Every structure is written in structure tokens, then in C-alpha cells.
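This part of the workshop introduces the protein records we will be handling. An example says more than a description, so a record of this kind follows:
>
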Amino acid sequence: MEDLKKYIREIPDWPKPGISFKDITPLLKSRYAFNRAVDLMAHPFLEKEVDKVVCIEARGFILGAAVAYKLGAGIVPVRKKGKLPYRSIRASYQLEYGFDELELHEDAIMPGERILIVDDVLATGGTAAAVIELVRKSGGAIIGCSFLIELENLKGREKLSSVEVLSLMSY
């Protein structure tokens, strides 16, 4: 995946000092890099009969929709509390300073449907763990998680040990 790493722009000290933000917009605007990333994120799941791809707000919507198209699956958006218009179920997750909540429409996933979770970055794993909780509350069968980038030093993968995790690039 080294060829894709050159499309990730690092922004030092954003959003605060000491953070090196991984900006994926150069990858998204490149016809080659975007298509390659989507192909690689979808490939391990092509034969796993994915029913729906659960996409995490906001960059996960971009990647997840493209992966879902590649897999012939539907998409389900997961959003922050108060952003979905219909009855929703909710899961909390921990932030650096406090908690936040994610929501999923209560009818988005039917029991037994095969679910792939997609997002741009796996950091601490809190967001993805909350999404796994929502999918399981809905009765979905999680077949894996696919991430563009993994920040290995934050050990987010440890929170996701119950599911298959794919990440294309590690930092």
C-alpha cells in the first residue's frame, strides 16, 4: 500500500498541538488512488455475500458508499446523535475528554443481514466499537471492518478483537 501512502497529506498540529492529522482528500481527488483504495478495501469481502455496508460519518460515507457499490450491497449511515430523521438506536463511545453518541435507524439492519463496517481511520477504536454494538443490537452479523488507515500506536484494533479488521495503510 506504499503507493497509496503518497496520497495521504499529513497536517502537523491539527486539530491541536501534537496531533499529526492524516488528510485523505488528496487520495479522494486522485482517480487512480481512490479507485485503488476502494478496490483494496472491498476485495477481501467480495465472496462474503455482504448485504449492507455500514458507513461511519463523515469520510466513511464516501469510502463506504463506493465499497458497497463494488460489493453490490446497500449502505447504512451511522451518524452522531440527533442527525438522523427517523427513530434510531444509540450507542455511546468515549472521546479524549468525555463521551459522544452514535445513532442508526432502528429499521436499517434486519436480523441476520451480513454487515461490513467501513471508515477512513481506525484510531482508538471507540467509534468502531460503538458501531459494532449498534449492528449487534439490530441483529446484524458482522463479517468485518475495513479501514483506509490505521493509527497503530493508538491500539484501536484491540477493541475490535471480535471481528475481522482490514486496514490498507498503517502509521
Summary: The radius of gyration is 15 Å.
